[in-house]
Design goal:
The complex is a heterodimer. Chain A has helices at residues 2-29, 33-61, 68-95. Chain A is an all-alpha fold. The longest helix of chain A has 29 residues, at 33-61. Chain A starts with a helix and ends in a 36-residue tail after the last helix. The model of chain A has no long low-confidence stretch (mean pLDDT 85). Chain B contains 3 helices and no strands. In chain B, α1 runs antiparallel to α2 and α2 (31-56) packs antiparallel against α3. The relative contact order of chain B is 0.12. The mean pLDDT of chain B is 89. The chains are: A mainly alpha, B mainly alpha. The interface between A and B is large, with 50 and 49 residues.
């Protein structure tokens, strides 16, 4: 049983290391700013997640119970990684000099972060028909 | 035994990742690239702290890891906000 647990933890650690390496290599290798955003937000997050799960299993194996701190760190990282990516993609979009090089949105409004049209004071709420 | 080798491999991978991020941090043409490099470095350092916790069998380092993760997220958001708006809290 301890052997199986050891192999499981080792597999998780190796997977995490490979994923983190892929994420950082992509950050170095990809050409464009928006492309570079892809690799770390997915690869590195999965890499650190598997390393943390391995740590949690290791604590369990040592007899200290399934520790909740690692789960907390995993949750925190998985919640904050998309937020970081959103903010950084907005920074990238606003640093592009020529906005006509952006892909079209397919509608007659521009990309949401460039849409400077005034919002109405009162939002149009859906109402029930038979009032 | 297998755990020792896997741990050494993971240490090497995460250390190499931090080196690659450092290259991007020094080269990065846009400010956003540098912020992204620092953010990825923070995540990798969190992983290194956790691996050190596995190697020593001591769970005291996880508080440091969670503090590091929080500080990294907040600094990334603050820097992005500054670049977007020219101000952090308006």
């Amino acid at each position: 049983m301890a052997q199986v647990m050891d192999i499981l933890i080792a597999a998780l650690l190796v997977t995490g290391g490979i994923f983190a390496l892929i994420g950082s290599a992509g950050l170095l290798k990809l050409r464009d700013g928006m492309q570079r955003l892809h690799a770390p937000t997915k690869g590195t997050t999965v890499g650190v997640g598997t390393a943390l799960i391995a740590s949690s299993l290791h604590q369990w194996q040592l007899g200290a119970g399934l520790s909740l701190q690692e789960i907390l760190i995993v949750l925190f990282l998985f919640i904050t990684a998309p937020l970081t990516a959103l903010f950084l993609s907005k920074v990238y979009l606003h640093s592009i000099a020529d906005r006509s090089t952006l892909p079209p949105t397919g509608r007659d409004v521009p990309w949401a972060t460039f849409d400077t049209a005034d919002e109405p004071d009162q939002p149009v709420l859906p109402r029930r028909q038979n009032d | 035994m297998i755990l020792t080798y896997a741990l050494s491999f993971a240490f090497g991978c995460f250390g190499l990742s931090i080196l690659l991020n450092l290259v991007r941090l020094l080269r990065g043409p846009a400010p956003a690239d540098r912020i992204l490099a620092v953010d990825t470095m923070v995540v990798n350092v969190v992983a290194l702290i956790v691996l050190y916790g596995i190697a020593t069998g001591n769970p005291i380092h996880f508080e440091a890891a969670i503090l590091f993760a929080m500080t990294g997220f907040l600094s990334t958001v603050a820097l992005s906000k500054y670049l977007l708006r020219g101000d952090i809290i308006e």
